[in-house]
Amino acid sequence: MSQATQTIRQKLATRPHLAQWCQATKDLFNTIAAFYFDVLQAHPAVLDLNDTEALTALERLTHATRKNPHPVMPLSEVTGDVPAFFRRATIHAALGSARSFSRHLSKWRAQKAKAEAKKKAFHKRPPVPPRTWRQAPTLYAGMYKERKDGTLLLKVWTGSSWAWIKCQVGGRRLAEGWEAASPALVEKAGTWWLHTPITKQFESPGQVVEQLHSSEVGICAEGEQHNLYLWNSMHALGEQVAHLISCRIVECARTHGATI
């Protein structure tokens, strides 16, 4: 089986305060993502864990519960209570940025050590953590619901509380037979969009040898163009050109008395 992936872009219809609430949601998302990036810098061993293990470790370090009343770096010092799905989306955004930064930093250190070992000057500057955070919020399943062709409910931060807002969406509809993933809330020139990745599974095409063999025996898939005649014409043309070139080589050898 193979998988095809594309992104559906749908425009949120303008309505009072919606742009303001979307911006507030994006700002809060990036504030929390930046916080978790700092947590990862303070606890770099978390980066060696897989995504599931890292998520558990970061929530234990930051999220207060009855079994974990005093986390080491409480998220409550940055913001009030946030939905679990929203918090986990910010954690994954921070993990992606922190792992990228860690890879670039390790590469820089290796390059510097190699240059110093050869006693060469090394002027390349080290990578730096993100100075600003402007990522588009990813909305996990708990942040949207009742998605239909032209409407859906979004859970947004109004600046003072969380609220479910019914939104009108326009543009390309979700294709039938495709599976939708979590959408992202994207702003472009003051307009807000939902970008939704969609995937579809399909049977893998046969091997190239199998496909060529089917063409040679005259079997062609329904609705597909039969290219056997074109293939034979190209083959004959190649043979003709090869013979012409070989004749020119022989003539040149005879003219100059070449024996090899």
Describe this structure as you would to a colleague.
- The radius of gyration is 30 Å and the shape is extended.
- It is 42% helix and 19% strand.
- The chain folds into 2 domains: 2-202, no CATH class; 208-255.
- The chain is built from 5 helices and 7 strands, in the order βαααββββββαα.
- Strands 1, 2, 3, 4, 5, 6 and 7 form a 7-stranded antiparallel sheet that branches.
Key phrases:
extended, 5 helices, 19% strand, 260 residues, alpha+beta, 2 domains
Task: Describe the secondary structure blueprint for this structure.
Layout: E1 2-12, H1 18-42, H2 51-62, H3 84-117, E2 144-145, E3 151-157, E4 162-171, E5 179-180, E6 184-188, E7 191-202, H4 208-216, H5 228-255
Antiparallel strand pairs: 1-4, 1-7, 2-3, 3-4, 5-7, 6-7
Helix pairs in contact: 1-3, 2-3
Kindly summarize this structure in a few lines.
By secondary structure, the protein is of the alpha+beta class. It has 5 helices and 7 strands.
Q: How many domains?
A: 2
Overall radius of gyration: 30 Å
Helix content: 40-55%
- Beta-strand portion reads 15-25%
By DSSP (H or I, 4+ residues per run), the number of helices equals 5
SSE ordering: EHHHEEEEEEHH
N-to-C CA distance: 54 Å
Largest sheet, strands/sense/barrel: 7 strands, antiparallel
Number of separate strands: 7
Structural class: alpha+beta
Shape: extended
Q: Which spans of ≥5 residues are poorly predicted at pLDDT below 50?
A: none
Mean pLDDT: 89
